[in-house]
Structure formats: C-alpha cells, structure tokens
Design goal:
This protein is mainly α. Helix content is 79%, strand content 1%. It has a single domain, classed as Up-down Bundle (A middle domain of Talin 1), CATH 1.20.1420. The protein contains 13 helices and two strands; from the N terminus they run αααβααααααααβαα.
C-alpha cells in the first residue's frame, strides 16, 4: 500500500507541475511580466509553497497544542535548511542532466542560455541572506538580534520581488496557445487561469505531503533514521515541483524559466521560511544541518562563478552540483549510523 501511495503522489506532483507551467506562463503574459519575473517570482513562490507548509504546520501546530515543540523544531529546521540545499545541489544537477537528455530537440543543444541578468541577482540575494541565517544557527543570538535579522530577511525579499518585477525582461518562446484544462477552443478567461494555477498548487502540496508521509512510513519499516528524512527525504519530495517544472521548460527551450524557477526559489527559501525558523524554533544547527548549509553556499558560489564568466554555460558543469548532494547523503548515513 505504501508503494502505491508513493507512485500516486509522485504522479500527482508531476501532473500538477506540467499544468502549473501552462497556467503560470499564461498568467505571466496577461500580467505583462517578463520571463525572469515569471520564473523567479510566480513559479518559484508557487512551487515553494508545499515545502514551506511542512515547517509552518509543524511549528504552528506545536505552538497551539503546546507540546512536541522539540520535535516540531527539529522537523522545521530540517525542512527549512533542506530545501535550499537540494535546490543548490540536486536541482542544478537535474537542469544539466535535462539539457543533455534533450540536446537533440533543443536549439542550443547542451548549452544553457539562462538569463544572467536574472540568475546572477538571484544568487547575489540568496548568498548573503542564507549565509546570515546559517550563521545565526551556529552562533547563539539574543532575541532582539533574531528579530532584527528576521526583519532584514523579509525586507530583502520584498526588495527582490519589486526589483525582479520592474526589471521584467522579454518573454521567452511562445506563450501556450490555450489553457490545458479549459474545455473549449477559445482562450481560457483569467478566472480559469487563476483556478488552474491555484488548483495545481494545491495538488502539488497534497501530493508532496502524501509522498512525505509514505516515505516516513516506509522508513520506519526498514529502519531509516527519522533525522535523515527530516533533512533530506522530506525536502526532496516537496522540491520535486521545481525539478519537474524546470525539466519541462528545458525541453521546450525555455532556459530562463527553468533556471529562474530554481534560483528564485532559492531566494524565497533563504528568506521567508528561514524567518519562520529563526523566530519560532530554537534555530540551533547540528552537524548535519550545518553541513547542508555549507554545501548549499559552496555550490551557489561555484554556480555564480560560472554565470559571471562570458563563456557559454554548458550542461556538464551543472552535473558537479550533484556530487555535493551525494557526499552529504553518504556523510549523513555514516554519521547517523555511528551516533
């Protein structure tokens, strides 16, 4: 039964991600937003909602019930840090792998033509925000400084959203001719686009939570430590929308949307969920959490370095980000087994 739930939840996330890309491109066009704004703001925030709900529900639930706060804090911190770590490692690997897989049908082959005017600012927002947040989990801060840091992170994201929308950018490729779920030949009205957009976000969230629950049940059966699930497997499931959306866009030669979906989500994950963690959890990083944060920062710095070069961004350089994910998983298993 657990295996069936895993398959069904994965299918729900994949199907919803395809419908989401269709609706978000149409909505972005009707709002006269450029490809950068669509990928880095609309798509990134929408697909980041499932993994954001996990720590939010866990933390708020503990506050309301008044019990299990320690477990809720552990789950919250793991999910919050796991998301940007996976985006900066496994997601970038998947972008490179997808470009290689679809090289024959892509106009640029193995080269990824990401909009550097969008991706570079994304990383320049992400790195200082996430570094400050990680440092706050290593060095104990008084409540006043935690509140100040939370205000800075929220202000940084607000500034990022305004800047990205103002910058806009040219549309990338053709906007989908019709809304997938609209049953008529005419273009779907805006309310139908909105309904498909919100509906697919809800389905992605439900599918992600179902996936996480199934993985947790399976882990208990085979004896996988719960700490590894909180930091790796849960974010892996909830980050699947970003991975699938980017693969779909890469296949359709929409590299700016594909990369912006990931880098924009990194900015979101380094500000909004982190703020929740700083204010409502002990926010004390253990060895594995610290290692995940360091790997996310390292991978982002390397990726930023490639973007700053004038040379074309080739898919194979993106594959290196996956090595950090493998190193972390192996280290986590050894650490948890030895503990």
């Amino acid at each position: 039964m657990t295996i069936i739930e895993l398959i069904l939840s994965l299918a729900a996330i994949l199907g919803a991600a395809i419908l989401f890309t269709n609706a978000v491109e149409i909505m972005g066009d009707r709002l006269h937003l450029g490809a950068g704004a669509v990928g880095s703001v609309l798509a990134a925030v929408g697909t980041a909602l499932p993994e954001t709900m996990i720590p939010l529900v866990a933390i708020i639930g503990a506050l309301l019930v008044g019990s299990g706060s320690a477990a809720a804090g552990e789950i919250g911190i793991g999910a919050i840090l796991g998301a940007p770590f996976l985006l900066a490692t496994l997601a970038l690997f998947i972008v490179g792998a997808a470009a290689i897989t679809y090289k024959d049908r892509r106009q640029t082959g193995r080269e990824i033509t990401a909009d550097r005017k969008t991706a570079i600012p994304d990383l320049l927002f992400f790195l200082p925000c996430f570094t400050l947040a990680a440092a706050a989990g290593i060095v104990s801060l008084p409540l006043v400084l935690k509140i100040l840091l939370a205000v800075i992170l929220l202000a940084a994201y607000a500034l990022y959203v305004v800047r990205t929308i103002r910058q806009g950018g040219e549309a990338e490729g053709d906007v989908p001719a019709r809304l997938t779920l609209w049953p008529y030949r005419s273009q779907g009205p805006t309310w139908a686009v909105t309904a498909q957009l919100l509906g697919t976000i809800a389905v992605m969230g439900f599918g992600a939570h179902l996936f996480v629950g199934s993985v947790e049940h399976l882990s208990k059966s085979v004896g996988i430590p719960a700490g590894l699930i909180a930091l790796v497997l849960a974010p892996l499931a909830t980050e699947l929308p970003e991975k699938f959306n980017s693969v779909v866009w890469l296949r359709n030669n929409k590299d700016t949307l594909a990369v912006g979906n990931i880098t924009g989500a990194m900015v979101f994950q380094s500000t909004i969920p982190v703020t929740i963690g700083i204010l409502f959890t002990p926010w004390q990083l253990d060895f594995l959490s610290t290692l995940a944060a360091l790997f996310a920062i390292l991978s982002s710095i390397v990726f930023l370095g490639f973007l700053l070069r004038k040379a074309p961004l080739r898919a194979f350089v993106m594959l290196g980000a996956g090595s950090l994910y493998i190193v972390f998983v192996v280290t986590a298993i050894i650490y948890l087994v030895a503990a």
